[in-house]
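Entry 14. Structure prediction run on the chain below.
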Amino acid sequence: MEVIALGIATALVIIAAIECSKLNLRAMGALILTGIAFIYVGFVPTEFPEILFESLHAIAFLLIAYFGLTKDKNLIWIGLVFHSFWDAGHLYHQVGYLPDGYEVFCIEVDLILAIYFYLRMKK
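Output returned:
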C-alpha cells in the first residue's frame, strides 16, 4: 500500500514542479521518458544479457522521446504508456535486480504522467 501512495505522490510532485516552473511541456516529457528508461540500466548487475537488454530498451525510449520532441508530441504520452508495459513485463517475469515494489511504483508514475501529458498536449 505504501508503494501505491508513493507512486501517486511522486507523479503529483513531478506534475506540480512542471506546472509551477512553467517549463516547456514537450521538453520535460521527453526528458522524463528518457530518464525513466535509463534508471533500469542503473539497477542491472554487470552481467551481459541483462545489461544489453536494459540498454537497448533505454535507447529505444530515448528515440521515442527524441521523435516526440521533434516530430509528434503524442509520442511522449504514448511512450509513457509503453513504458508502463515495460514495467509490467518486469513485474511479470520478476527480475531479481529491482528493488521490491519498484515495478508497481513505476507503472503508477508512468500512467499518471501519461494521462497528464495527454491532457495537457491535446490542445
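The chain has a mean pLDDT of 91.
Filed with the rest of this week's runs.
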